[in-house]
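Quick log. Single chain, no ligands specified.
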Amino acid sequence: SNSMPGLRISCVTAKMLSFHTANRMKPRSNPPRGPLVAAMVALCFSLAGAQEGTWLFSASGGLQFLRMANVNETLDKTVRDWNQLELVPISPYEHFSSAPCFGFRASYRFERDMVFSLSASFFSASVKNAYNDASVSLSLDRSVGSTQVLIGLGYVFPPLLHDVEASVEIDVGLLFARAEARTFSTRTEKQGASDSTYVYYDSEADYKKSKLIASGGTVLRWNVFPPVFLKAEAFYRVAKVGIMEGTVKRIRGTFDEE
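-> predicted structure:
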């Protein structure tokens, strides 16, 4: 019913299906689904020498590319549901495609051509959608993100050019993923000579999960001047999150929104 709903507070445990487009999430206030598959490109500065038996410390920032077909499909379905079921002409979402990422790496070069490393990285991405007119206000906020902690082993090739080295690295570790969805809608109706605005729909969903992951990539290092060097990294990280469990809290509303 589109009449003013009564106060309704509910809190349930739910699961987010991250695979198979045929699997629909219920209730539909769940956040997006999809495998998190990322390729990361980062530039960083490091302070250390290049000799064996030394630690190298670096901080990095870059761009993480996200392949989230199922997540983006869910965003599209959310818009269609509001368009068709609630007759709210909200525009399509921008899809998740990339996000800034930041990281830290500590490497120990125990041989000239072998490196052990400990690294951590973080990314967060969000998309927002909204519609407003004289009678309806709607905001749809969705976000995803993760923190990764990994250990790795790398092989350093003989120097390519003067002061330039290349290496390949394989990392394994844990990914701590999260997904959030916020939906808020109000309606304004005529009450005699004045307008009355009330909350039509209000829900929050939070999901978290940890997962074993692996990544591999290449590193180019250019010694600018000792002990400072510039490093470029390109990594491909596979992190299929799977089913995420979480909590959906619906304060008002009866419309099942995905």
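The two ends are 18 Å apart (CA to CA).
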